[in-house]
Amino acid sequence: MKSWQLGAVLFVVMMVGCSSNTEGTEAAARKYFGIEFKTWMAGETSTVATKRSQRMMFAPPISYDIRSIVSSEPDVLACQDTANLPKDWKTWPAFKLNAAIEWKSEDGTPLTKVTTYLLTWNTDEKRWYATEQF
User: What does the angle CA 8 – CA 22 – CA 100 come to, to the nearest 5 degrees?
Assistant: First the structure.
């Protein structure tokens, strides 16, 4: 076998061996939350915007800090069509996430509120669902 062919074979083997499925992992949940939160901070519609901030028409938050993230039970509403909920929904990866959200108060000083979210990975739809917990 020529050296370039051997190199190509080794490259393919390394790529297959190094690639890993990160869907539904804690790292993927953190990444999803970060992207959605930055979208919210930019003033755009986001799945992690809190109900109170939407109802009160608050200005977007100025920062966030994930305080904790732990495995949790999945949300039964984490699907487009709850009438046709897959039988395996209880096995979907889910994480409870506590985030300290910083807002600019009316007098210009920072105001921090800790909010809990449930992030559920729907394995059928291949997407995350974020639900604010009360």
Answer: 140
